[in-house]
Every structure is written in C-alpha cells, then in structure tokens.
C-alpha cells in the first residue's frame, strides 16, 4: 500500500493529494496537461520534496515532513520510466540494462529480458533501436533494480500509434507476469481503459476521482472532458 498525504506549492501551482494507492496491478493517473500528474510521480520517487505531509510505501516512511525525514530517491526501491528512454548512447543495451544494478541474478535478468522480448537487442547501441524498443530497455533497466513499485510518466508519448499499441501490451504483461505494481501517468483515456485497474483523476493539482476504472470512467467530470 502506498499511503500519500502531501501538499506542495510550485510558484502559483498548489498541489494536494490525500489518498492511498493499492500496490497491485496498474493504477492510472489521468488528467489534462498541467493538472499535476508529474508532480505526483516526482513526489513519490523523491525528485520533489513535499511542503507538508508524508508518503509511506508498505509501511516504510519515504518522507515525513513532521519528522524531518526524507529518503533519497535512489534508496526508495522505486523505478521510474519517463517519456523519453534515457539510455547511455555509448553503451550497448546489455550494459545499459545492468548499469548500476548490483543485486540481480541471472534468472531475474532472463525473466525480464523474456517478458520485454529484448534478447535480440542486447548487443545493439541505443541509436540502433526504435522508440518502442528503447522504452522496453528503459523499463528493463528500471526492473533490474528490483523496485517495489514502478512509476511510468507518459511512457508512450514519444511513440507512433503502432509502437504505442505494442508497448501497452508489454506494460500489461509486466503487471500480470512479473506482478509488479505500476502507477501509470497518461492523459489518454483509451490507455486507461486498456490496461488500468484503478484510476485517479487530477485537475488543477487536486484529486477529483479515485476508484475502479469502470466506475470512474462514468463520472460526470469525464463526461464533460470527452
Ligand atoms: N519547479 C516548478 N516551478 C514552478 N512551477 C512548476 C514546477 N514544476 C511544475 N510546475 C507547474 O506545476 C503545474 C503542474 O505540472 P505537472 O508537470 O505536474 O503537470 P502534468 O499534469 O504532468 O502536465 P503534462 O501532462 O503536460 O506533463 C504546471 O502548471 C507546471 O508549470
């Protein structure tokens, strides 16, 4: 369980989020541009410090403003995949995957390589990969660090439609085959329908709705948005 009760002021933008997120399956964070989706992701992974409140992952405090506690991003056991796959251009895929990952065994490596279907890419440089292949490698690298939770901030936005469809299938497999909980940021309702179990809707830095996808997609807020 991810327990979040935070507020953050970024210039004139006020952000608040008070809700628990079940660490199971895929939880989508949906909202228009500027609603605060990336702010939420960066509060969870530690790239932003809240002004007030706390975040706990499976009962471990990641940040607690009252106690002046702040766990550094690299110690949170949380993987983040951003819009653009940030790979080292001068390293082959295999080195990009294993860079900085100290605690993994070869069966874990094989499992991740299989689920993401990147075996044939291991000896290529990033410049020799398509956008979707790069994102699969970036996801693989995040998974090799053994995260308890995977955050994905609009991972499809740089891809064309066929690659989007392809990568969505892989993301779905991660949650099901590897059993890794995922928080998935998007402004695309179709992506939510395809892969998410639960969805949170943000608007102007506030949580508007949270619940099962079937339920939330019926909300009046989304009827106006569609
Ligand atoms: N460091 C900052 N300083 C000032 N304002 C910021 C800062 N970071 C974000 N903001 C503002 O906070 C608001 C929310 O930004 P955020 O990136 O969280 O939105 P988003 O929903 O992820 O948007 P998008 O879908 O376009 O990525 C925006 O108005 C943005 O300009």
From TrEMBL:
Pfam families: ABC_tran. Keywords: ATP-binding, Nucleotide-binding. The keyword NAD does not apply. Residues 1-226 form the ABC transporter domain. InterPro entries: AAA+_ATPase, ABC_transporter-like_ATP-bd, ABC_transporter-like_CS, ModC_ABC_ATP-bd, Molybdenum_import_ModC, P-loop_NTPase. GO terms for cellular component: membrane. It comes from the Bacteria. This is Molybdate transport system ATP-binding protein. It comes from Gilliamella bombicola.
């Amino acid at each position: 369980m991810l327990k979040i009760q935070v507020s953050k002021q970024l210039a004139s933008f006020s952000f608040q989020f008070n809700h628990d997120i079940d660490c199971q399956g895929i939880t989508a964070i949906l909202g228009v541009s500027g609603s605060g989706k990336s702010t939420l992701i960066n509060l969870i992974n530690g790239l932003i410090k809240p002004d007030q409140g706390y975040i706990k992952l499976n009962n471990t405090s990641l940040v607690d403003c009252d106690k002046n506690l702040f766990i550094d991003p690299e110690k949170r056991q949380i993987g983040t995949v951003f819009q653009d796959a940030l790979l080292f251009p001068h390293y082959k895929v295999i080195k990009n995957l294993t860079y900085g990952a100290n605690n993994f065994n070869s069966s874990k490596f094989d499992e991740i390589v299989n689920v993401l279907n990147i075996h044939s890419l291991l000896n290529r440089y990033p410049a020799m990969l398509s956008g979707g292949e790069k994102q699969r490698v970036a996801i693989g690298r995040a998974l090799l660090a053994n995260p308890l939770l995977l955050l994905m901030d609009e991972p499809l936005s740089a891809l064309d439609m066929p690659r989007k469809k392809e990568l969505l299938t892989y993301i779905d497999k991660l949650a099901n085959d590897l059993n890794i909980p995922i928080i998935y940021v998007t402004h695309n309702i179709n992506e939510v329908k395809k892969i998410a179990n639960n969805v949170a809707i943000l608007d102007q830095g506030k949580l508007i709705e949270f619940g099962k996808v079937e339920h939330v997609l019926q909300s009046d807020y989304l009827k106006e948005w569609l």
